[in-house]
Design brief:
Elements (H helix, E strand, L loop, with lengths): L16 E8 L2 H10 L6 E8 L18 E7 L10 H16 L7 E4 L3 E4 L2 E12 L5 E10 L15 H5 L5 H22 L1 H8 L9 E5 L4 E9 L5 E4 L5 E4 L3 E4 L3
Parallel strand pairs: 1-2
Antiparallel strand pairs: 2-3, 3-7, 4-5, 5-6, 6-7, 8-9, 8-12, 9-10, 10-11
Bound molecules: biotin.
Biotin (BTN) binds next to α1, β3, β6 and β7.
Length: 259
Amino acid sequence: MQNTLKDVSVLMPEGVRAELYDRLDSTNTKARMLAQAGEKGPLWVIAKHQTMGRGRLGRTWVSDAGGNLYASLLFAPKVAARDLSALSFITALAVGDALVAHGVAAEDIACKWPNDVLIGDKKCSGILIESLLGAEGHLDAVVVGVGVNLVAFPAETRFPATSVQDEIGHTPSVEDFLASLAHAFVDQWQHWENFGFGAVAKRWLPLAWNMNKRCKVDMADGFVEGIFVRLGDDGGMVIKLDDGTEKSLYAGDVYPIDV
Ligand code: BTN
């Protein structure tokens, strides 16, 4: 294993391991391969560069900049696959906590449904969650991929982007940020285990971007327009349509109505 990132084992939460690579196609793909080979984690797979970084909805996550975080957590939670809807909110909250720990003002952070993290209305982090299902739909493992623009962001993006460096003028090392994220994730996950989805939603909702505002959601097969009125108990985005009815959405990209 080539490794130009420094060893972070001592910084990780108890029982959580990390494997650091200089270059991978995708940390999510690597974590999936490890899971298929029997690895159960909890293990953070992290790369300095990705050659085929993957985003949500089949998109590419531009990953050539050294200094950004490209990391995937592999673990095997003892929960049913249907209960995993909390995971995107748990992860987004953990990213927010790590950003605050490294100097971003809490009031500048927003969570954009389903799992983007914004600083000052611009995307700083994206999350790609992949489940590995075994026999009869049983959840074997889950991979939580997290990209954080610490130092750089692509020039041409559908939604405005930013980096920690651009927002606060300095940035933590990848290793220090990973350590903060790993600890924050354990805390947010335990909060969910102890208190359930309602408690996670209670933390996420005050940070929700565009809540009670008109937006359009790109559903891949067309746009849906309406007002983002609440989060469903199942993590769905509930929007009020112009005819007054409510619709729950489970995937898509949200844009303000003037975009
Ligand atoms: C998105 O907003 O579309 C999600 C982006 C997720 C990117 C991260 S970077 C680390 C991990 N490995 C990948 O290939 N993707 C995720």
